[in-house]
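Why do we care about 3D structure at all? Because function follows from shape, and shape follows, mostly, from sequence. That is the central idea of this module. The next example makes it concrete: a single protein chain, its amino acid sequence, and then its structure expressed as tokens.
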Amino acid sequence: MKTYTFSEYGKERLSIYEVNGSTDMKRLVKANKYHMIVIVSGTMIADVNFRVFSMGANSSLHISSGETIREISTSADMIGYHLIYSPEFQTEMRTTRRSPISLQLKREYPYQEFTESEFELIHSSIKRIIGYINNPGHSYQSILIKNEIYSMQLNISDKRRKEHGSMMTDNASHQEVIRERFKNLVEGHCYKHHSVSWYANAMFISPDYLSKIVREYDGTSARAWINAKIIEKAKFLMVQSDLTLKEIADRLNFPDQSSFGRFFKSNTGQSPKEYRRKLNEGKLQ
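And the structure:
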């Protein structure tokens, strides 16, 4: 794993790691640093603050200081870069200090996908930064590196604003952001967590407020939304695997098979055994 470090005033300001599928990505993440991960090819899954991000080629993810990294896994063919900024350097390089909307967008949408031409701007900046780091004798090394970082971050911010900027225009849009984050959390964690309060706590809001927002936008409760996703996962496991119903109940974090059976029947009108029997008989599509 190649590493490139930019130092200034006797302190490390920026480190860039060339990473691949064999790199221990989680080891590189330090809570008091700002991180940006850029994927050139392959895939990566990152669980950050209970939000699951499935990254593909031509994408980036920023992880702010103090955020909790629960898990990072990569495909064997993953190739990319891991940029780590010191807190002081990140403050100096911040492009959003004068734009509350851009700052909120970065917090709500840390993951960004790019077209090939858009990503080429990001990738080229990183390669030029590495080139400048490898040329410490250049009289203007520091200025060139900072200008390139600033340009790269502005390109990412521009893409983020174009895709999500309309979400921040009013309070209703802020509620839509909460709804979308809730959906992301449920998708990634319904295998283990079934209560509305868990998801509300993960977003630092009250269960009542979360339920109110979901009902206003979807006409159903947050509880019903979670239940529907659990049923979706249960049906998927019954279709795609040879797991026993007890094993499926364990996978979905039910205390026992009976609890899972009651839950499934109350939400579908039939027991798991009936559903699997009809599935095997070809009576279900």
